[in-house]
Structures are given as C-alpha cells and as structure tokens.
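Bench notes, afternoon.
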Amino acid sequence: MIVPGPRPRNQTSTGSTRPLQRAVHPPDTDPVSDPDAPSDAAPDAPALDPDARIRADAEQVRTWLVTVRGGAPFLSPADDHLLLSWLQAGIPAAAIVAAIDTVAERRRQRRARRRLSLRDCRKVVEAGPRASRRGPAGPEHFQAPAPPAARGALDDLIDEIAATPVPDSLRPAHDALLAALRGLPAGAHVDEVGRAAAAAVTAFHDAAWNAATPEHDALRERAAAQLAGMRSALKPREWTELVEEVARDLLRQRTPAVSARRVWDRLAG
C-alpha cells in the first residue's frame, strides 16, 4: 500500500501553495522486490514502480491544471492531498485531466469567484464512469490487456483536429499533436493511451499560449470585460487570477477539438 509521506515542517495553512507532495512507501513495504520473484510486467517490458507512476501522473495533472488556469505551478495542500488520494485509488490521470477540462468548460457559463482548483473538480472526478472501477494503484492496473478498439475510438477526433485551422506560428505544434495521436500504441491499456494523449493535448495548448504572446494583453482585456461585473467583489489577487484563467480559456476556445475531455470520453466510453 502506498501512503502519503510526512508533511514538510514549513507547510503553511490549507490556503497556501507548495509543490506536490510525493507519495512514499513506508519502510516495511519497500517497492524493491526479490529479483527472483515473479513479475506482473508484460514480456520484455520493465515492471512499473507504482510510486514513480503516481508521481508522474500527479505531475501530468498539475501541468494541465496550470495550463488551464495559469499562475504558479504549485498545488495547494488541499489539492495536493486530494490528487494523491485519487491516484492511490487508481483513478486514471487522464480521467482527472478530462474532469478539469469539463469543469473549465462549465465555468464559462457560470463564472466562479476564485480560480479553478482540483476541489472544484471533485464531483466530476469521483462520479466518472471509471472512478470506482479500480482498487489501490499497482503495476497490474497499468499492464492489463487493452479494452477493444481503444485506439480506434480517437480516429474521428484526430480527423477533426487535422481539419482545425491554426496560424502558421502554431503549425509545428499542430503537426506534433497529430503525430502523437496517430502514433498512440494500439495494443496498450486504455489508461496508457489516455495518458499519452492527454500529454499531447497539454503540450499543444502550452505551445498555443506561448505562440499567442503578442495577443496576451488583448486576451486579458477581453477577459476583464467579461468579468467586469464581479470586479468590485474580488480582491486584487483574485481578480488577477480569474482574468488569467479566462484569457487562457478564450484562447483554447479557438481549437475546441483539442480537448482532454473529448479524448477521454472516447477512450473510456
């Protein structure tokens, strides 16, 4: 069983931020096993360390959350604990990334008074069709046989992304995204396919935000106009965070097919 490690002595209150806390094994459950013991790994594939997998998945979720909302690349202690509990329960990283996408889309219709957090995504994550399917994280969850046609389920979305017009400055990132999606391993577990696809989507939107640097001021002005009715009720920091989140959302709306939610819906459906 994987349990959270001890909290740093200098940890602040729940509202503070800090880097994601890594999960560690207690001394009596060292993940290093007898080299002669049977392995759950597929033939000719190295066994995956569940602790390393959780750390990698946590980083993927954190990266996508920051891509969506902007701001410092850290999680609050509350989000840190929540994310660790989801990953230890075996909820796929791609499902969490998709839930962030879903909640971000909902916030377009009903503006919140604080920036997006994982706590805002809790109901979507834990109500997902695969959120309760799996037990504690372990190598078997990442090396089980792939569900039928997991890769083929993305073909229509890949075609839609290919037909999406992008500016010349974003063409290399668009080409890289298509190459990554078309190159997804057909025989891999659906979670592994989802993880790779979510990483490709994140990389594209990171590149899109960077390519749009000359437009950042204009995007923030549009975001501020949309949020104008809320400004008097917000503290300066809250205002800045929300403007940044909405500005990034305005840019993502230009390429709606490049969606972590749509990717996961097809893979997990």
